[in-house]
Design a protein that fits this description.
about 180 residues, alpha+beta, 2 domains, four-stranded mixed β-sheet, about 60% helix, elongated
Length: about 180
Amino acid sequence: MSAVAERYAAALASVGLERKRDVKGDLSAFLDVFYSSAELRNALETPAVSQEIKEKVIREVTEKMGIDETVRNLVYLVVAHRRAGMFREILTALEQQLNMRMGIAEAEVSSAKELSDAEKKELTAVMERRTGKRIKAQYREDRALLGGVVVRVGSTIYDGSVREQLNRLREQLETE
């Protein structure tokens, strides 16, 4: 992730949290429209279009969408500096900034079978106690695990899979 994208994201996160606005949702909604409309992308990325026209287009689109002025100002700034190609990177950096500031950790959970809602809730509670943060988990099946779960929170991996337990047992037997 570039330092420029992180600076844009940090500034937007600061203002959004201060004003209690859903800047992530608004930026995400704008980017959905931006990337789905070739005309809008061309208007905002083409150097031949004047800055005044770009600002008018941004204002009209964001007003129709009900986008917060904080996000509108960020879009103005990014487009004026010809960095529209960084929008996705800025959104990713914004999500990370907001999660960090609100004490949320993202977790990737792999399990041998699909977990029930009760199992997901229990696993989330355990991870929240262990990390001291609120956990926002994404779940996926991985049949190669044989059983159990593997949880990745940031750079930390909690491996409770049957495959890992068998590997540890094999290593123990080999050293004896």
